[in-house]
Amino acid sequence: MTSFTSNPKVQLAATAVVSGAVVAAAVLGLQHFEERRVSKRSKKHDADESHKLAGLDHLPTLTNADKEDARNAALAQRALKGDYDEELILEQLARNRVFLTPEGLEKLRKSFVVVVGCGGVGSHCASSLARSGVGRLRFVDFDQVTLSSLNRHAVATLADVGLSKVQCLKRRLMAITPWAGFDLCLEKMDKDSAPRLLGPWEDGQKPDFVVDAIDNIDTKVELLKYCHDNDIPVISSMGAGCKSDPTRIVVGDIGTSTDDGLSRATRRRLKLKGVTSGIPTVYSTEKEGAGKAKLLPLPEEEFKKGSVGDLGVMPDFRVRILPVLGTMPAVFGYTVANHIICSISGYPVDYVPGKGRDKMYDGILAYVQSSEEKIIRQYINIPKEEGVGLKIPVSPGDISFLVEEIYRNKSIVTGIPTKLVLIRWRKPESSTLIRIGEGADEQKSSNVKLHELVCMTKEEANRHQKEILQGDKRLEDLYNQKTIELAERKIKEAASYEQFRL
Question: Which residues form the domain of 368?
Fold first, then answer.
């Protein structure tokens, strides 16, 4: 009997079984919480429940805590009360101190960073921030450590399987930096909880930086939009899945990020919410290739089971296992941490230059306005001065989205990438003028929809305006079938994104 229970394989199997039970219980608990959250309860009750969930008291006691855990916890309590030799801290941080200067390290030690998403990327980032001297860290994540987490998580061990990721991080990191303060939030971030989860420390200190290590697009966009609108410094990690070349990982503005799926979807959604630049992003320029891992579409039989959102164990849970090389999330996480450390300490940081296209967007917006004025004057036969002051329901973010994301900076007609503008594709059947108010308070605007615009060079658009929008020619008279079909596909694609506009 003794030999049976001492068999490592048996022990591992037992650990897996127990861990599976813990994870199952946690998932059921999260399902119950999600059902409570979306039930028709008062906002005040939801806020109260959410506040309780975000606190530290709800986290369970470690069931597998050992003497080392107890010793580390006791040391951390003493250190946070000031009972820890300052010389020992400075010796531990000596290499950073000579690199960043004493003044730079002091800024880091007084800083407060929020890490949202504590999986592969977030855990390596959090570990590096703690080791480098960041004084206060808040970890936000609703998930638990699983066996499949161990190929990429920074600090998790088999003993942590079934434990919440936020508690796992604190358990390991307080053994390394007992003087650091940790705030654990075991919950899923959304737009309602963002003010609290990204809010100040208990003494009122606001975050010096927020780390976006989320792989859910809706939550990612909500977090970045909130930080952008509230002037909270944030850096976003894009997709590490299916990547294998660490030399292709760069830091650049959100406007320069390339076309991995997560990056593209995030960038598009942010542009439709008016955010076109100003967010540093870690992304990979690596392209897909023969023999490389890729995320395959769900089999048809899976779709027949219901909507994709219904296939997970709870709403917004990932449905599939992503192909991830364990080293790549670490490189992403360390790159994020490196940027934060340098930024807070004042060490020089150079981005990949942004596109700087604000003037171009303004020019395209002016062209759309001019084109709409011409259409209105033709339909209702009013003097030229009547068209002055026409407002257009299109923003610079919309312009950026259409030109860069839908039309990829190329004319729909010839593929030429210079002197681009936007113009209606089809001739309106009636007047496009909307009037509100009278006299000096009258507002005149166009009813043009975002998906009604297509991208052309200015010369092509001028011809289109004259012969299609203000003339008698049909699209078939001016363009070949291939161009018309391409335009219709792009129009349909743009229309599918209009739900995400502000």
Answer: 358-500
